[in-house]
Amino acid sequence: MRRALLIVSTLLLGLSTAQAAGLRRFDMPADPNGPAIRGLVWHPCAQTPHEIDARDGRTFFAVNDCPIVGDKLPLIVISHGRRGWLGGHHDTAAALADAGFIVLAINHPTDAGRDTSGTDSLAVMVERPADIKRAIDYALGGWPDAGRIDAARIGFYGFSWGGYTGLAVIGGEPDLRKGVPKCQASDLRACKELEAGQTPSGPIVHDPRIKAAIIIDPYPMFFFGSEGLKAVTIPIQLWSSDPAQSGDGLSGCCAADVKEQLPAKPEFHLVKDAKHFSFLAVCTPKETETVPSICTDAPGFDRVAFHQRLHAEAIAFFKRNLGEAGAR
């Protein structure tokens, strides 16, 4: 894994100075619609990236508070998985920023590393899509660099519960009622709350400003049923880990089902030998030691090489559907 980290470092530091990821904070205050949201923004920068200590042994390659290069840039919003954090896809965020996108990754307030009070709950199923819309509202309004963003070119990238989040915010309607098939037999917290008679705090929030989405191993999907995705019509790049790795209970679920339910055929990628967590950023030696469950890939699977492919496909998809950086 030290070799993998060295490869990533070499690749990033070898980029030209016109292709470096700047990094800046995104601190959205609480408002009447919800709590404060913490985020980070990766963006084009004209300085050479360097190693930045993030937290808990994690490392980013970027430039803090670098001036943003370009105007009217497309925006990509990243939603992490269950109990994840805003840095879980930092290499993907940096790659997109190197390609000319402004990339915003947020912590979902009650379902992120240091506050998991809402994890798996009925409340968080409603709050997660609302978090994305509120973050976009702030990015286009209150954020100091809002003027750098082209509001007509917004994309989304979501992994696992972030995949559910994306499908909901782009038009999906989960069935959040008592008696949902498969929910009655599930031990998911949201299912238990529904079966106990609880109801959602409000409707699912959609955001038509999102024009294209990358959805990876979305979960949970049984809430959408057979009709819940019929209003999802924007271009989607859909990724699935390998069902042959399903011994972890997550790999291979549930992108294939989503593919069949979408009214328009998505661009579909099934990644042989990939585990669910193979889509997370390449782990540092410290991460490998402390969280081996998310850092250990199937024998012979090269996460570094796979992420090079993932990033190339993601960049090409967003450029096709949102336009090149600086395009009007």
Major sheet: order of its strands?
A: 3-4-1-2-6-5-7-8-9-10
Strand content: 15-25%
The gyration radius over C-alpha positions equals 19 Å
Poorly predicted runs: 1-18
Q: Could you explain the architecture of this structure?
A:
The chain is of the alpha/beta class and 328 residues long. It has one domain (2-322): Alpha/Beta hydrolase fold, catalytic domain (Rossmann fold, 3-Layer(aba) Sandwich). The chain has helices at 2-13, 90-98, 122-140, 161-169, 189-195, 255-261, 285-290, 292-295, 303-322, and strands at 20-28, 37-45, 50-53, 59-64, 73-79, 102-106, 149-159, 210-216, 236-240, 267-270. The protein has a ten-stranded mixed β-sheet with strand order 3-4-1-2-6-5-7-8-9-10, with helices on both faces. A hairpin with a 5-residue loop joins strand 3 and strand 4. The longest helix is centred in the C-terminal third of the chain and has 20 residues, at 303-322. The chain is globular, with a radius of gyration of 19 Å. The model is unreliable at 1-18 (pLDDT under 50).
